[in-house]
Design goal:
The complex is a heterodimer of chains A (260) and B (328). With 260 residues, chain A is an alpha/beta fold. Chain A is 38% helix and 13% strand. In chain A, the strands form two sheets. In chain A, strands 3-2-1-8-7 form a five-stranded parallel β-sheet. Chain B has nine helices and 16 strands. Chain B is elongated, with a radius of gyration of 20 Å.
Chain lengths: 260, 328
Amino acid sequence: MFYGVELSSRLLLGTARYPSPKLLVEAIKVSGAEVVTVSLRREAGPESSGARGGQSFWSIIRSLGMRVLPNTAGCHSVKEAVTTAHMAREMFDTPWIKLEVIRDDETLQPDVFGLVEAARVLVEEGFEVFPYTTEDLAVADRLVEAGCRVLMPWGAPIGSARGLNNVYGLKALRAHFPDIPLVVDAGLGVPSHAAAAMELGYDAVLLNTAVAEAGDPVAMASAFALAIEAGRMAFTAKPLEPRDMAVPSTPVLGKAAFGD
Amino acid sequence: MSIRAKVTVVGAGVAGLTAALELSLRGHAVEVIERGRAVGEGCSRMAGGMLAPWCERAATDEAVMRLGAPSIDWWLRHFPGTVRNGSLVVAPARDAVELTRFAERTDNHEWRDEAGIAALEPDLAGRFRRALFFPREAHLDPRRALPALAEALTKRGGTIRLGVDQAGSDFVIDCRGLSARDALADLRGVRGEMLVIRSREVTLSRPVRLLHPRIPLYIVPRGEGVFMVGATSIETETPGGVSVRSAVELLNAAYTLHPAFGEAEILELGADLRPAFPDNLPAVRRSPGGLMVNGLYRHGFLLAPAMARQAADLVERDNADLRQRRSA
């Protein structure tokens, strides 16, 4: 549940870097995703699609009838991010904004100071902010304090395909914010990474590169969708905690069992 | 021989001129009409001119490779300036993993070590540990190739009428690129940006691709110290000049390849919209007045000969049908 919107799919998909719009559309369809992210800085908004009757990238996205989560990818300062959010609200007619404030183009790491500041400004203006952040608890706390009702911590740096770099940190975040929807955003490479995030009790996963740049984006979208479903099902089925010793699953004959 | 008096090709970009020459070579009377003042002045002018079907496999549909591979011979036959020297793919040390990934997704390549790179491109000696060499690939200068095709066509008796948009025959092959979107609802524009530089210090004999996690960048030698650096691919139809961000990325690519490019002179920064269908593959389609060739996207020079052949095949099949019907 994101800002009062109930979704049935726990997969959010980015729309950049697919080999073609056709494959993008097919990947989105098989993934079952109900939300797509669109970058305002690098892609078209509705205003540029032109009245000349052609089918621009944006009209292809629009034809899917999906909920759009515009993002502020590529913004390096609070001011840029806020301006981009304003443009997004006008173009896409939604209060949702995936807030990214990036420190530099090399690491693409979130600038958490700018992020908190921009979140404060945008929440004040009535936006429903989805902040792209690290797993840092203090930053998360500040974001919630600023009025964010969703948190999107990274798994690993954007596009790195490394999976969950800090499982302990992500677990701690889940434990600290049991009632805030948490989405792992960025850094996933293979479906098992997504399953692992769901097994930690995360509410959803946001992907782009792992699907878009796979050899077969459509098959990969489907694989992620299955993994996310499996991971969620495992979480709700209450998995075992790891133990240090083997625990025989069949009784061992001829030996007294402990405690019996 | 055609029973139609003449075929009119609309548009003197790479799609139109290849189709016109192909038809002329097969014995058809052809005229090309172009509303501009010269041939090849649309987005063909911005093309890289790489004939790199095997490199393209890394990020595009298998059809690009299959349709594009025979194009190299087509260009070698019809444009003497076509250079078959292969192409080279390198990656900055930090992105070395991208090179491995590129190799896994492509074939018809050979690994080259530092000495092997220096043997191919002496100016790149010591700059990269490993490279992928695609020996069968070729390149050309689009700004020379299209006037040469126009000349070949005229020599064969074809006509090119500039500043004209009225067809002189009743069978039209529409090669207008993005201007044809009035008739093609699924055509979109994808913005591309490029730059042209001149260096007195660096010499390259073949296109070099620099792998980058976000954008594929390449540098194509155009002779006399001139290099084309391309190209961005942005899903927008916003017109206008090259953005600062794109310029920085293109310039960085040149600089990363060789720091001496830092001293190069910028001759041109250019941006245009590429016509593309939703699958990013070109198509020949029937229209009420004839045929339409469009959607060449990033692969104009690579795929235009294949589209020209398809268009010419359709014209001939139609003529055969007409002949049969008349004699019946």
